[in-house]
Amino acid sequence: MAKYLSALFSGLVFGLGLCVSQMMNPQKVIGFLDVAGAWDASLALVMAGALAVAGVAWGLILRREKPVLEAEFQVAKTTQLDSSLIAGAAIFGIGWGLSGFCPGPAIAGLSLGIVESYVFVGAMFVGMWVFQIVSKAK
Predict the structure, then answer these.
(1) Is 60 within the bounds of a domain?
(2) Angle of helix 42-61 relative to helix 26-33, nearest 10 degrees?
(3) Measured on CA atoms in the order 35, 86, 77, 5, is the torsion positive or negative?
(4) Any domain includes 92
(5) Global pTM?
(6) I want to staple 69 with a disulfide (CB 3.0 to 4.6 A). Which of 3, 40, 41, 131 is the partner?
(7) How many C-beta neighbours within 10 Å does residue 59 have?
(8) Confidence at residue 4, expressed as pLDDT on a 0 to 100 scale
(9) What is the reported pLDDT for 90?
(10) Which residues of the chain have pLDDT under 50?
């Protein structure tokens, strides 16, 4: 039960951070990508803050023998780049740039009734469904 409450609390803090920083507003992302026009640096500042907190936390966490609520750490076992990873990253980046949403802010936007969030999340689920079909066909 503690594991689920921890996950819920973490998600709520993450969503609150997205709301306070206005990262659920697609115009913030599009403004960040508009480097030749009215560039908005707020996304870069949010990313820098997140990286600073994550870097400190990661250093402290890895000093532990094991996680508090799990039997072992769940870290990536491979560092190899393959075509699926590169294609997925490209599709993610294109979708992010075109819509101004990535999954976290879009899902958080559902709670505020942001119509564009519903469209994005629906399209995201269709994309995941298509991926399942395509990956099974290989």
Answers:
(1) no
(2) 100
(3) positive
(4) yes
(5) 0.74
(6) 3
(7) 9
(8) 92
(9) 93
(10) none
